[in-house]
Write a structure and sequence with these properties.
Elements lengths: L5 H5 L20 E9 L3 E9 L2 E7 L11 E10 L7 E3 L6 E13 L4 H7 L1 E8 L3 E8 L15 E6 L10 H4 L10 H6 L15 H35 L10
Antiparallel strand pairs: 1-2, 1-6, 2-3, 3-4, 4-9, 5-6, 6-7, 7-8, 8-9
The protein binds manganese (II) ion.
């Protein structure tokens, strides 16, 4: 068996990416889960469950659905380090280049005593207690027969399905609650707080719907940053005079 997080670490250059380097560790108490909205070459949602010191990870192109009738394709991808679960920001280049938003987080409880056996079988039932996602869910491996799976990725395709309970319903949660649970920002805010022009030479998504969305985000975030810079330059002399106590901590 491969070393834990080997694939995660191999794909990244940590001198160029703000993402955390991979280390196996445990959160100690309840099992952590998160969903990261990731605008890279395509917009998708990365669904992650803490298990054995890493985050088991699935990329869900359309995001989780609260409707039990709507089964969402979930591509099983490499394990991520536990520290990744709090990551939000801009990946300027390389693997996964784009914008990452922490869309939901909380704890999860397996509805089985043997998670490894459930994963091996391809049928993992669990309960989520997040801000947006709650109640009972299942991840089921499809055996690669699912039409949405790209060739060469057979066996990696699973379905994420909500079980019927008090937390299921027809509400489109991705549209209803699109913002970050960490910063309350949207993708544009996350980009604007970083460097909006970061990919002008080499954008993660160039064409299609995602490319157009990214181009718009970059333009708006750059516009906002320019306006902010102008405003703070103007306001600076007055602010300096009137401020009696310096703010303890402005920005982390
Ligand atoms: Mn991703």
């Amino acid at each position: 068996m491969a070393k834990p997080l080997e694939e995660y670490n191999r794909k990244r250059d940590f001198t160029k990416s703000p993402e955390p380097a991979g280390q196996v560790k445990s959160s100690g108490g309840a099992r952590f889960f998160c969903v990261q909205k990731h605008l890279a070459s395509h917009l998708h949602y990365d669904f992650r469950l803490e298990h054995n010191g890493v985050l088991l990870s699935w990329a869900v192109p359309k995001g989780p659905s609260l409707d039990p009738k709507t089964k969402r394709l979930a591509m099983h991808v490499e394990d991520h380090p536990l520290d990744y679960g709090e990551f939000e920001g801009v990946i300027p280049e390389g693997y996964g280049a784009g914008i990452v938003m922490l869309w939901d987080r909380g704890t999860w409880t397996p509805e089985t005593s043997d998670v490894d056996a459930a994963l091996k079988k391809g049928d993992l039932k669990f309960t989520l207690d997040g801000f947006k996602l709650k109640g009972s869910w299942v991840l089921v491996r499809t055996g690669g027969r699912y039409a949405g799976a790209r060739s060469g990725q057979e066996g990696r395709s699973w379905l994420l399905i909500k079980h019927r309970d008090e937390w299921s319903g027809e509400l489109d949660i991705a549209t209803f609650a699109p913002r970050s649970v960490k910063s309350d920002g949207d993708l544009e805010d996350i980009l604007a707080s970083d460097t909006p022009a970061v990919w002008l030479s080499n954008r993660p998504a160039k064409g299609g719907e995602t490319g157009a969305l990214l181009a718009e985000l970059i333009e708006r975030a750059a516009g906002r940053k320019a306006a902010d810079t102008k405003r703070s330059a103007k306001a600076a002399p007055a602010a300096r005079g009137s401020r009696k106590t310096a703010p303890a901590k402005k920005k982390r």
